[in-house]
Amino acid sequence: MSAGWTREQMAARAARDIPDGSYVNLGIGIPELVTRYVPEGREFIYHTENGLLGMGPPPEEDELDLDLMNAGKKYVTALPGASYFHHADSFSMIRGGHIDVCVLGTMQVASNGDIANWSTGAPGAIPAVGGAMDLVQGVKQIFVITKHSTRGGDAKLVERCSYPLTGPGVVSRIFTDLAVVDVTPDGFRVVELAPGIDFEEVESKTGAPILPPI
Amino acid sequence: MISKKFSSVAEAVADIPDGAIVMVGGFGASGSPIELLHALIDHGAKDLTVINNNTGNGEVGLAALIGNGQVSKMICSFPRSSQSRVFPRMYKEGKIELELVPQGTLAERIRAAGAGIPAFYTPTTVGTVLAQGKEDRKFDGRTYVMEPWLKADFALIKCEVADPLGNLTYNKTARNFSPIMCMAATTTIVQTGKLVTAGEIDPEHVITPGIFVNRVVEVTDPIHEDTLIAGAGRYP
User: Fold this and answer.
1) Domains of chain B (ranges, CATH numbers)
2) Annotated catalytic residue: which of A40, A49, A159, A192?
3) pTM greater than 0.80
4) Does B175 contact A51 at a Cβ distance shorter than 8 Å?
């Protein structure tokens, strides 16, 4: 299992596709790693939906403030030039199309750009949606970082999501451990293969038709 | 001279009746008005509908209010998190009702109530199960769903600095839902870490203008929910 990209490499690869000066919102999990791999010479401004623009790294012990956290409820810092605002303003930034890129994890993503990352729909499960449905509808570009398959070996890139949707037709690009994949009008298309991975392997692990790199 | 000052948290929440709709500020632990919530537990009003982004953590504050059987319904966007145990247990036992609202829609429904806007259209939930039963309409070729305002009888709010007129400032991301909840409730009750005289807060720095606030009670050195949870606190 040496071929392919690690979690860190997936995050670094996604960071390369975020333009300089972007306002960026990061989901919980692998997307949070993007902050460590901002390409040389670029600057991103991070938005966290509980009410902070200009989010910085976790605090050192002597700068910890219990009232300064991110949407994942982890303690963070505020960089010079940061601002605080209330929730209606925060989601105006999201819904109003002011955030350039959102990077999300997912349970499933479909070849028509549908994403399902909030609920398995299992009976008895407690539904929890947070800001996911606002983000996918409002942010200009939705990137997904995800392992290509579940731990059980099921494809996460599928023809149609079987889990309840977070939003229809919203995802533009997917960064997996095996490849970078675009959602196009013709379905999935591989943009780039990870080192040591060939197209046939990606095709065999994708639950929908997928086109080779151009 | 106008003064909205109350002398204790007990006095400030004393008239919250059974069946009230209560907004509670805070996102996770930050901004959670712990002393007002504990006063509400002592007061004992029950059959409450509570509006908050989450459902409380550990066995203090909002989680303790729920655990004490005083809440019959929660309206929130994210009812479970790593530290929330009370709500998930009671929900699975069928002892509490849940209305799940996406976070941005929750914020805008609250803001709309405060602004006198009975409903608005949003793209959030379009094409999902959460849009079922909602009226939709196209604007410029895109589909939006209608969402109604969300009002409350009371709001319980924590702020950093207040004056007797009810002008407020907050600390960092503890602000979250509080300014819009102040607008949306009939009676807004605020606990402040520091009460200053009118004029001490620069008008340019006021975040919540006093018109949205009805009661202010000073709670110096308020306990932070995270501190209580780190010490495995319980209430009562």
Assistant:
1) 9-121+149-230 (3.40.1080.10)
2) A49
3) yes
4) yes
